[in-house]
Amino acid sequence: MADAAKTTEKTSSYIGNMNTKKFHYEWCSSVGQMKESNKYYYTGTRDEMIAKGYVPCQKCNP
Hints:
With 62 residues, this protein is of the alpha+beta class. Helices cover 19% and strands 29% of the residues.
């Protein structure tokens, strides 16, 4: 039963930086510093963003 809880991951909205390959929560201060053309908007799980080659931001720690 504990395994089922581990496989259920929360879906969130993230913004990835296509240049740095880091991803952030929408409210992260780093998002305001990004050029709009570099932003990658994504709704899904943290693991899905990592699978796409993005790494979590060290400020907001998504």
